[in-house]
């Protein structure tokens, strides 16, 4: 069973599909900026929540678009980050929302870490109205990811900062960006011992960087690759280049998915440096994606990403959210790029 109008039962009779992908009914009217599955502790159902439009949240929870969402570890609460400069906690049991954070500008990212949550680079105890700690960043935060005890923040001017969160959270390292253009998304990956060991970084230039924090051979282990491009295949023919809007790692295999402004998703094996699959093209960008806890379901959202400005926004164009059976397609391969 699912909430918010998703069809009941993945792949069951009567589901609406695009190919083999199940369409979630009644998506938000506004652009979809993020997707998040509930933790596996929710045994009765998984809730899929969409950020950017606040249509699916309690009425008047925010006065501006919701840019990011995350879950508490027990699945009982949802945390939201908004352009109205606030972060709020939605208690699903009581269906009540309360403000837990206030910033001087729109809040781009929010993450739950054990007993406290972090939005941008202010740390909050949800029992207190004041931040428990603030870490100054050199520029505006464009994207961030947290896998305890590591946090990675990508800022304006191609800044990259790694933070360690154990004991007293602090800056661990600043990294020269391996990408030449504006950062759009970042996702931390783990090693075989299930510890965070590096991150994938996507840019507006249709390129992803794989970067290990402490690689044995930096020149070999860290690399970039092109993606979400079309038409031209060599330097003599111009290419259409699209932004990488989101990156998500498979929780079991460690392979990854990227989605882009070209309206496609692609699956990759970073260790074998292999492309596993590229989807058919949708008629508008794919703006967000995520995997459920065991990696069997891949969720992705199609909506306008504002890359061409407000004049290209068509309020009559429908947004979509699809669920795809990803159990086999994300398995690692041996072939190299």
Automatic annotation (TrEMBL):
InterPro entries: WD40/YVTN_repeat-like_dom_sf, WD40_repeat_CS, WD40_repeat_dom_sf, WD40_rpt. It comes from Cyclopterus lumpus (Lumpsucker). It is found in: Cytoplasm, Cytoskeleton, Spindle pole; Nucleus. SUPFAM superfamilies: WD40 repeat-like. One of its GO terms (cellular component) is spindle pole. WD repeats lie at residues 59-100, 244-278. This is Rae1 protein homolog. GO terms for biological process: cell division. Belongs to the WD repeat rae1 family. Its main location: cytoplasm. Keywords: Cell cycle, Cell division, Cytoplasm, Mitosis, Nucleus, Repeat, Transport, WD repeat.
């Amino acid at each position: 069973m699912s909430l918010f109008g998703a069809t009941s039962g993945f792949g069951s009779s009567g589901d609406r599909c695009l190919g083999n992908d199940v369409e979630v009914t009644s998506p938000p009217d506004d652009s979809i900026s993020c997707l998040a599955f509930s933790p596996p502790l929710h045994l009765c159902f998984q809730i899929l929540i969409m950020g950017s439009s606040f249509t699916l949240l309690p009425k008047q929870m925010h006065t501006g678009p919701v840019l990011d969402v995350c879950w508490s570890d027990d699945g009982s609460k949802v945390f939201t980050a908004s352009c109205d400069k606030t972060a709020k906690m939605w208690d699903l049991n009581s269906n009540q929302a309360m403000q837990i954070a206030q910033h001087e500008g729109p809040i781009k990212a929010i993450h739950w870490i054990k007993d406290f949550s972090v939005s941008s680079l202010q740390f909050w105890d949800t029992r207190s109205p004041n931040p428990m700690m603030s870490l100054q960043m050199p520029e505006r935060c464009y994207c961030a990811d947290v896998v305890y005890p590591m946090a990675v923040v990508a800022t304006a001017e191609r800044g990259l900062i790694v933070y360690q969160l154990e004991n007293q959270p602090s800056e661990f390292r600043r990294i020269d960006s391996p990408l030449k253009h504006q950062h759009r998304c970042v996702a931390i990956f783990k090693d075989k011992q299930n510890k965070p060991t590096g991150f994938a970084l996507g840019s507006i230039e249709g390129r992803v960087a794989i970067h290990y924090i402490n690689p044995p051979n930096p020149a070999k282990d860290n690399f970039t690759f092109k993606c979400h491009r079309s038409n031209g295949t060599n330097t003599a023919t111009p290419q259409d280049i699209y932004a990488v809007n989101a990156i998500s790692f498979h929780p079991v295999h460690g392979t990854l998915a990227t989605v882009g402004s070209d309206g496609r998703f692609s699956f990759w094996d970073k260790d074998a440096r292999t492309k596993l699959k590229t989807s058919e093209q949708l008629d508008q960008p794919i703006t967000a994606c995520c995997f459920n806890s065991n990696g069997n379901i891949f969720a992705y959202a199609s909506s306008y990403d504002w890359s061409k400005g407000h004049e290209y926004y068509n309020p009559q164009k429908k947004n979509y959210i699809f669920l795809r059976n990803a159990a086999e397609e994300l398995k690692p391969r041996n072939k190299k790029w």
